[in-house]
Inverse folding.
């Protein structure tokens, strides 16, 4: 008898990690719902790759998100693989980030992830199997200065993943967190665009803090080769296809160094390490 085709959902499939993941899942025979705002990109992907079903959603728009969740609930075949990937960053010292910008980011990176997961869970429970892959970040385990709000959203993704994993294990549903380091996608450009010209609007007090940390982080990239999104898509595929996926996976530029230090140093020592790495040890304003 022919096996039924399973349905996967990848959010943020119009570029970067999500796009590569959608392609790889389709290659494994999944019917892949590829969701994001840029429908023209998704339609182009569907023309190129068999098994891709493009679907527009703006996860920051609560009404639109609810419509999308209704669509998911009404699917004839439930989603059995959910890749919660859509996300973006904003930069800025905590004092500089408006609450509106922080709330919007949380609507996409956290509440969107929770809501889409809620919409997929009844179907997975009915199946008594499923895999939920949450794209966190190495910033889900420590926070770079000037990226505190983004890191806060990813810490929250880690907490949700940890609780959910234990809650849904009795139904045969697996939950995996992925912690990419730096990966070459549109992520940086989007972050810059969403943030705007920080130096122009910050208080003069902060200028040297931005400049020192910018130079500190910049140093890490000298002569560096930053891997592309295929690296993470391969890991997602490995987790989805595995009989016993790990709780969390990490890969990407600098992820090993930072996550190993975070796992081995105590809080004070890690704080010193990160202050040093980001070039702020000797700064006094
Ligand atoms: N690249 C890195 O260095 C890095 C490192 C750690 C973690 N990550 C995480 O990896 C994930 C994927 O990022 P990426 O590197 O592949 O970046 P990317 O190329 O910018 O992709 C982000 C995806 O999210 C979608 N998205 C953004 N806002 C959305 C919204 N309001 N509604 C629906 N979809 C939205 C975008 O689609 P539309 O614009 O078409 O809506 C796009 O498809 C993110 O969660 C990010 O935090 C990335």
């Amino acid at each position: 008898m022919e096996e039924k085709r399973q349905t996967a959902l990848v959010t943020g499939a119009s570029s970067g990690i999500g796009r590569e993941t959608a392609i790889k899942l389709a290659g494994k025979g999944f019917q892949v719902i590829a969701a994001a705002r840029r429908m023209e990109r998704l339609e182009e992907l569907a023309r190129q790759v068999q098994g891709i079903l493009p679907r527009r959603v703006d996860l920051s728009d609560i009404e639109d998100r609810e419509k999308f969740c209704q669509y998911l609930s009404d699917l004839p075949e439930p989603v059995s693989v959910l890749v919660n990937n859509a996300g973006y960053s904003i930069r800025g010292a905590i004092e500089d980030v408006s609450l509106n910008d922080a709330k919007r980011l949380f609507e996409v990176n956290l509440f969107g992830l929770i809501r889409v997961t809620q919409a997929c869970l009844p179907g997975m429970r009915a199946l008594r199997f499923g895999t939920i892959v949450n794209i966190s970040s190495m910033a889900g385990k420590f926070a770079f200065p000037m990226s505190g709000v983004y890191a806060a959203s990813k810490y929250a993704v880690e907490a949700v993943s940890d609780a959910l994993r234990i809650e849904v294990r009795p139904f045969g549903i697996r939950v995996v967190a992925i912690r990419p380091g730096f990966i070459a996608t549109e992520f940086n450009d989007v972050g810059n665009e969403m943030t705007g010209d920080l130096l122009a609007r910050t208080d003069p007090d902060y200028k040297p803090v931005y400049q020192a940390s910018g130079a500190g982080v910049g140093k890490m990239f000298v002569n560096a080769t930053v891997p592309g999104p295929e690296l993470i898509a391969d890991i997602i595929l490995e987790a989805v296809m595995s009989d016993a996926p790990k709780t969390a996976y990490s890969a990407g530029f600098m992820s090993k160094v930072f996550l190993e230090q975070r796992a081995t140093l105590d809080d004070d020592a890690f704080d010193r390490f990160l202050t040093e790495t980001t070039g702020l040890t000797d700064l006094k304003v």
DSSP finds eleven helices and seven strands in the chain. The two ends are 72 Å apart (CA to CA).
